[in-house]
C-alpha cells in the first residue's frame, strides 16, 4: 500500500465487495413469495431460511481476525468469495428447503469471514484517514447493495422464464467480477493471532455497549422487511406480482443509505435521537398496516423505517469509530460490533417465525412492532439523557 492510487483502489474494491456480498445475501427476498405460492416453503420455513445464515456467520465471524492475521486480507476475502459463489449456486439449482438452508449457511460463512475485516479495511484504506467517511462507506455499501438486490432479483424473476434461477445467476456473475479486483489487493501477513473471544478495552466499553445496542435494534427492521414482509404484501396483491413486495423489501435499505449520506454532517447523538424516534413511527405504521391489510401503509413504514435505520446506524457507527480509531484492538471491537448487528438480523426474525407458526402472521408482526417500539423508546430516552461533557455514551 505504497501509493495513494493503490490505497484508493483497495478502498473502492472493499466497497464493491461489501455491496455485492450484501446483494448476494438479500436477492432471495425477491422470490420468497414464489417459494410460498409454489408450496416450496411455508411462512415459518421462510424465516428459518432467512435467519439460517447467522449460524454460519457467527462462528466464522469469530475466526475472521485470526484468518486475516494468518492469511492476509486478500486470501481471506477470496475464501469468503468462494463460499458466496457456492451459496448462490446451491440456492439457484435446488429449489427446496434443504438446499436453501445449505446455501444460506454458506452465505453466512462468507459474510462472517469478510464483514469485520472489510469494516477495518475501509477505516485503514480511507484515502484521507477520515473515519467518519469510512463509517458512511460501511453503511452505504451494506444498505445500497442489500437494498437493490430484492428489486433487481424481482425484475429477473418477473420477466424471465427461469424465475427461481435467473436472480441467482445474475448475482453469480457479479461475484465472479470481483475476483480480479480482490487479487489486486496488497498481500499483507501479520503475526498469527490466537482464536479468542474478542475483548473490548475498558475505555471504550460504554460507547461500545451503546452503539451495539443501537445497531442490534436498527438491523431488526430491514431483516423483517427482507424476510416476512414480502410474503405479507404478496397476500394483498394479485398473484404473480413480485415487484411491489420486492420494492418494500429493498426500499427500507435504499432509503437508509440515502439517509446516511444526507445526515453525515449531523452529530451522531442527534442522528440517534431522530433515528430512534423514526423507528417508533415505522413500527406503529407496520402494526396498523398489517391490521387493515394496506400495502400502501407497509410501504410508508418501509420508508420511515429506512430513514430511522440509516440515521441511527450512522450515528452508532460514527460514535464507535471515533473512540476506536487509534487503538490496536480496533478489529476486535468491530468484530463484536458486527456480532451485535447480525444477532439483530437473525434472532428477532426467528422469533417472528415461531410466533407465526403458533399464532398468526398478523399477531407475530404486531408483536415485532411492539418490540421495536419499546427498544426504540429506550434508545431515544437514553440518548437524550443529560450526559457529562466528556462522556461519549448513548446510555
Descriptive labels:
single chain, MFS transporter, 79% helix, transmembrane helix, cell membrane, 0% strand, mainly alpha, MFS_trans_sf, transport
Overview of the structural elements:
The protein is built from 13 helices and no strands. With 395 residues, it is mainly alpha-helical. Keywords: Cell membrane, Membrane, Transmembrane, Transmembrane helix, Transport. It is found in: Cell membrane. This is MFS transporter. It is a multi-pass membrane protein.
Which helices and strands occur, and which strands form pairs?
Layout: H1 4-26, H2 32-37, H3 43-62, H4 64-93, H5 97-125, H6 131-159, H7 166-183, H8 205-234, H9 243-262, H10 268-292, H11 295-324, H12 330-358, H13 361-383
User: Taking all residues together, what is the mean pLDDT?
Assistant: 87
The total tally of domains equals 1
What is the string of helix and strand elements?
Answer: HHHHHHHHHHHHH
**What structural class do the secondary elements suggest?**
mainly alpha
Largest sheet: none
Can you tell me the CATH superfamily? MFS general substrate transporter like domains
